[in-house]
Design brief:
single chain; alpha+beta; Aminopeptidase; Alpha-Beta Plaits; six-stranded mixed β-sheet; four-stranded antiparallel β-sheet; about 20% strand
C-alpha cells in the first residue's frame, strides 16, 4: 500500500468528533485531572486494535498513555507527542461553553481545542488510519499522551526515562502550521534581601533601608533586560529579564526588614543557568552597595532549557517537503516564544524534535479558546505524511 492510500484513510470527521469528546472531558491542571482522558484515549485506541498502555508513573493517580503501530522493525521510530492537561478556565469570562465543542464557521471553540485536544484527536486518528491499513512499514509510529505539561511536571520526561524513545519527534503544540525547531529557555531565581527593621523616622545613617536595595536591584534587572535584549538569534526572540514577583514589608510605618523577589530570565541556547546566576549575584552585590547590616542571597528555583533542532535536519526537511506537497504552500520556520516538552526530547535524550501544530498560540490560555478547523485538518494530514515518509525508510 502506498503513502497516498494510507493518507486517504485519515478521517477528518473522526478528528473533529474526537476533539469534541476530548474537550468534554475536563483535564484542568492544577489540580491535574487527566485520568478520565487517559482512560478514554486508552480504551478508544484499544477498541480499534491499536497497541496501547497506561503508564502509572510519575503519578499513579494521573496515568499517561503510550500507543504504537509497529512496523517490521527495520526502520526508525517516529514519536508524536501531545499533552492531555489544560490550564484552568474562568467560565464567567467565556462567552461559549468551556467544556463543549462549539463550531462557528471555521472556528472550533472549547477549552483545550487549540492546546491541545485537537492534536490529541489528530494523533489518535493517525494511529487508527495506519493500524487499519495493515501496511507493515519498516518503521514504527509511537504516540505519547503525557500529563502535567502545563505546570512543567515530568510527564514526557518520565516516559523518555522509562525507555519510550525514538529517532525523531513532533510535539504538536500550536504553531499555526509553522515549523518550530527551537524554543527560548527560561530559568527562575529567588532573591532574598534582609536587613534590620527600623522606624521610618530614623535617618539613612541610623539604619539601611531594605526596600531601597530592592528598588536598586529592580533597576539592575531592568538594565539587564535592555542589555540581553540586544542579542539577535536567527530563529528565536531575544533574551529577556524581569522581576515577576516581589514580596516585602511588614507594617505601614516601619522599614522593610525583608524583601523577596523572583526573577524570570529568558535564555537563548548558548546561555547557561550558571552564568545567569552569577550575573544576578553580582547585580545584587551592587544593589546592596556595602550597606552594613544588609545581606542577600540568590537561589536557583527551576529551569526550562532552550532547545534547537537544526533547520537542515532530516526532520525539518521532511516536514517542509510535506507542507509543500500536501498544502501547496512554502513552509515557514518560526521560533515559538513558549516552552514545551520539546526540550525533554532534545536536551534529555538528544532526539531531534520540532513543535508543529494547528492554531494560534495567542488564543491559548484565554477565554473562548479556539482552533481553525481547516488548520487542524491540514496539520494532521501534513504530520501524518511526514511520519509515513520517515517510517517507510529502512534503517541504514
Amino acid at each position: 500500500m502506498d503513502k497516498q492510500a494510507i493518507l486517504d484513510r485519515l478521517d477528518a470527521d473522526l478528528i473533529l468528533d474526537l476533539t469534541a469528546k476530548l474537550i468534554a472531558i475536563p483535564t484542568v491542571n492544577p489540580p491535574g485531572q487527566e485520568v478520565a482522558c487517559a482512560r478514554f484515549i486508552h480504551d478508544t485506541l484499544t477498541g480499534w486494535g491499536v497497541e496501547c498502555a497506561l503508564v502509572h508513573e510519575p503519578d499513579p493517580a494521573r496515568p499517561q498513555v503510550v500507543a504504537f503501530v509497529r512496523g517490521r522493525g527495520e526502520g526508525p521510530t517516529f514519536i508524536l507527542n501531545a499533552h492531555m492537561d489544560t490550564v484552568p478556565a474562568d467560565a464567567a469570562r467565556w462567552t461559549r461553553p468551556v467544556f463543549e465543542a462549539t463550531r462557528e464557521g471555521d472556528l472550533l471553540y472549547g477549552l483545550g481545542s487549540c492546546d491541545m485536544k485537537g492534536s490529541l484527536a489528530s494523533i489518535m486518528a493517525m494511529l487508527k488510519a495506519l493500524n487499519d491499513s495493515v501496511a507493515q512499514l519498516p518503521g514504527t509510529l509511537m504516540a505519547q499522551f503525557p500529563m502535567g505539561e502545563e505546570t512543567d511536571e515530568p510527564g514526557t520526561k518520565t516516559l523518555l526515562a522509562l525507555g519510550y524513545v525514538g529517532d525523531m519527534a513532533i510535539t504538536m503544540e500550536p504553531t499555526g502550521g509553522r515549523i518550530g525547531p527551537g524554543t527560548r529557555g527560561a530559568c527562575w531565581h529567588r532573591v532574598e534581601i534582609e536587613g534590620p527593621s527600623a522606624h521610618c523616622g530614623l535617618s539613612a545613617a541610623d539604619a539601611p533601608d531594605v526596600m531601597h536595595v530592592a528598588q536598586r536591584l529592580m533597576a539592575e534587572i531592568e538594565a539587564l533586560h535592555d542589555e540581553v535584549g540586544g542579542q539577535v538569534h536567527h530563529l528565536l526572540d531575544s533574551p529577556a529579564a524581569r522581576v515577576t514577583q516581589c514580596i516585602a514589608g511588614e507594617t505601614h510605618n516601619s522599614r522593610a526588614r525583608r524583601a523577596e523577589l523572583l526573577v524570570d530570565r529568558r535564555m537563548l541556547p548558548h546561555e547557561s543557568v550558571e552564568a545567569v546566576g552569577e550575573d544576578l549575584r553580582a547585580r545584587l552585590d551592587r544593589a546592596i552597595g556595602g550597606r552594613a547590616g544588609v545581606t542577600g542571597t540568590v537561589s536557583f528555583v527551576d529551569l526550562n532549557e532552550a532547545t534547537e533542532t537544526p533547520i537542515d535536519s532530516d526532520l525539518v526537511q521532511t516536514l517542509s517537503a510535506n507542507i509543500r506537497d500536501l498544502s501547496g504552500t512554502e513552509p515557514e520556520v518560526w521560533g515559538p516564544p513558549y516552552g514545551s516538552d520539546m526540550r525533554n526530547f532534545v536536551v534529555d535524550r538528544g532526539i531531534p524534535c520540532v513543535n508543529f501544530g494547528a492554531g494560534d498560540f495567542r488564543r491559548c490560555h484565554q477565554p473562548d479558546e479556539c482552533v481553525p478547523v481547516s488548520d487542524l485538518l491540514a496539520v494532521a494530514r501534513i504530520t501524518f505524511g511526514t511520519v509515513l515518509d520517515v517510517i517507510s525508510r529502512p534503517q541504514p
